[in-house]
Here is the input.
Amino acid sequence: MMKEKERLDKILANSGFGSRRDVKRLVRFGEVLVNGERIRDPEYHIDVDNDEVVINGEPLEIEKHSYFMMNKASGAVCSTKSDRHQTVYEFLAEADNQKRLGGSLSTVGRLDADTEGLLIFTTDGELNHRLTFPKYEVKKTYLVHLRDAVSAEDKITYAEKGKAGLHIPAAANDPECDAKPCDIEFLEDDKCTITVTEGRFHEVKRIFIALDNEVVYLKRLMMGTLHLDERLGRGEYRSLTDEEIYSLKELVK
Ligand code: URA
Here is the structure.
């Protein structure tokens, strides 16, 4: 399912040869050989496992896609620029952030500024698209702290209403609507986990508004097969292991 071939300009930008514009110029100037042949088309597709690329006379160690998980800190926004907030990209090491400047490292979906926890970054646009595409109904599990403690009876009601699919209020540009069924499991009277399969704007917060309660703390624990590595402090990140990448790809293949 995943593309085995990648565009030459993308590979060079990901490998630190400058912006997409810079690397297009390099290719057009004839600085790049693929399997001994001079290639002047920046959109030429490379077999990353088998082709030999030489740039400015030096063999290129082709960098494969990057996959990271971050324990997002509250207060950071998932956009590339903000006047008021730190962005999640500012938590990345310069070399990793360059991959975005090269045009392709992005977050898989978004978390609200005040939400913490699991945030995936990747340069793999195909996997990113699939993990967020509604058809795949990728599960996302959150830890929720609630404003109001919930009685034993209401815990059952919350779970039943969640399973049936709640009618949630409008938020920003998303009108009121029926959310898809979700799983709510209580840990304490005012703490639960919720698992949703959609990625609607403020979805979890809206679900609890529909239940006459309010989310006061939200942390994503899981996305698809990937669990947040709790050893990561707030704002820290690490590369995904080969097994983690493989199981995410399998999930949406
Ligand atoms: N639902 C929300 O309300 N906020 C998030 O950040 C993620 C899911």
